[in-house]
Amino acid sequence: TSSKKAEFEKLSAYVDEKKSIKDKFITSKKDKDTLSVAGQLLKDNGIKSRIIKRYLPAMNKLIGDYLRRMDFYVNFTLDENFEETIKSRYRDIFTYESFSEGEKARIDLALLLTWRSIAKLKNSVDTNLLILDEIFDGSLDQNGSSELGWILRNFDDNTNVFVISHKESLEGKFDRTLKFEKVKNFSVVNLSLAETD
């Protein structure tokens, strides 16, 4: 009887193992089906292309608007593969690399601000904090800096924009300016408020 009991326990263990393997198989099949559907949707001819086609006109319009606001008059469009076509005077085709560093900076900023706007439009993703590190210190010329400053100052009231810069010429251009100085090896912070009309 003890050998029958041992055989019964062995058989019972095999049945439990079979049930466990079957449950794992079912779970794995569900995961495979889910990943297969997701893969189909994300293919270039799936839902991804429909979403891109839907938002590309809005994106291209926003990019153009931001470029014009920064006094840069080119026709910049993205296609479904996010490859750009840049036309000056709406007929001469240029590449990104053919522009000056200041013009490239304007394009980069237009794209940044466009992605932010599309995220807000599509997903209601809206951050009330925008930190721009040394964005005025690089390649933007005086006119580009002035136009970008206007864009940043005219975000809605819920947006907090922090601009980090080494340029002293920005003082008074924003509502508040924090100036950090070294005085006898200590950092001193001075706050100045822009004059209101």
Question: If you had to describe this structure to a student in words, what would you say it looks like?
Answer:
By secondary structure, the chain is of the alpha+beta class. It is 50% helix and 20% strand. It contains 4 helices and 7 strands. The protein has helices at residues 2-42, 47-69, 101-123, 142-153; strands spanning 74-78, 84-88, 92-94, 129-133, 160-164, 176-183, 186-193. Strands 1-2-3 form a 3-stranded antiparallel β-sheet. It has a two-stranded parallel ribbon with strand order 4-5. It has a two-stranded antiparallel ribbon with strand order 6-7. A hairpin with a 2-residue loop joins strand 6 (176-183) and strand 7. The longest helix is centred in the N-terminal third of the chain and has 41 residues, at 2-42. The protein is elongated, with a radius of gyration of 29 Å. The termini are far apart. The model has no long low-confidence stretch (mean pLDDT 81).
